[in-house]
Amino acid sequence: MTEASKSGATPLEGDGKRILMILGTPKSTSLCHALYEAYAQGARNEGHVVRHLKLGELRFDPVLRYGYEQSQPLETDLLEAQRQIHWAEHLVFVYPVWWGGLPALLKGFFDRIFLPGFAFKHHGRSQAQNRLLSGRTADLLVTLDTPPWYFRWIYGAPAHRQMTRSILGFSGIKTRHLAEFAPVRPSSEAQRQSWLRRAETLGSRA
């Protein structure tokens, strides 16, 4: 459940942007968590309204068991997630890259809720579609153990292309910033602190 829905409170909304932050790792603690909190703090400091969606705390089946051939009822947490995405003007996804791609939990989240009628709509047999989430922007904060240059030029950055083009772009969401924090494993404490400052700055510019 989102923090707003857990508390039963509705944040006061003024002139700030409506931001939904989505933490896409199943781990309970990680650098992603710290980046997530730093970005949120930067956004709140500028008067934006921030809501939270931590996928590791949601209860849902991440497997789209029948494809699009048979309906799979959405769990309560997924229905709430769809409402929060409709509410948001700006989405922030924070996640690690594992095996060159998205964590299974995050991919399963997209499989389950970015469905026809919510994220896109096809027109008969043609390839044309309505991008039903148009008008929204996104920032991506991504951790990797692979050096960014190697991930791009040797592997072809498959996770980045999947997120920006195949998932968000297909649904009408325009990626504004894709920030890489890498390589994580050999990083020093000083390096990680600079990454947190960078994430907070990105939040302040949301």
Question: How many helical stretches?
Answer: 7
Structural class: alpha/beta
Distance between the termini: 24 Å
Low-confidence stretches: 1-11
CATH topology: Rossmann fold
Rg value: 17 Å
Shape: globular
The CATH homologous superfamily corresponds to Flavodoxin domain
Overall mean confidence score, pLDDT:
92
What is the CATH level 1 assignment? Alpha Beta
Domain Flavodoxin-like fold: 17-198
Organism: Pseudomonas taeanensis MS-3
Family: Belongs to the NAD(P)H dehydrogenase (quinone) family.
GO molecular function, one term: NAD(P)H dehydrogenase (quinone) activity
Describe the structure.
- This protein has 206 residues and is α/β, with parallel strands linked by helices.
- It has one domain (3-204): Flavodoxin domain (Rossmann fold, 3-Layer(aba) Sandwich).
- The protein is 38% helix and 19% strand.
- It is built from seven helices and seven strands.
- The protein has helices spanning 3-7, 31-45, 76-87, 104-113, 148-153, 158-171, 189-204, and strands at 18-23, 49-54, 90-96, 120-122, 129-131, 137-143, 174-181.
- A five-stranded parallel β-sheet has the order 2-1-3-6-7, with helices on both faces. The chain has a two-stranded antiparallel ribbon with strand order 4-5.
- It is globular, with a radius of gyration of 17 Å.
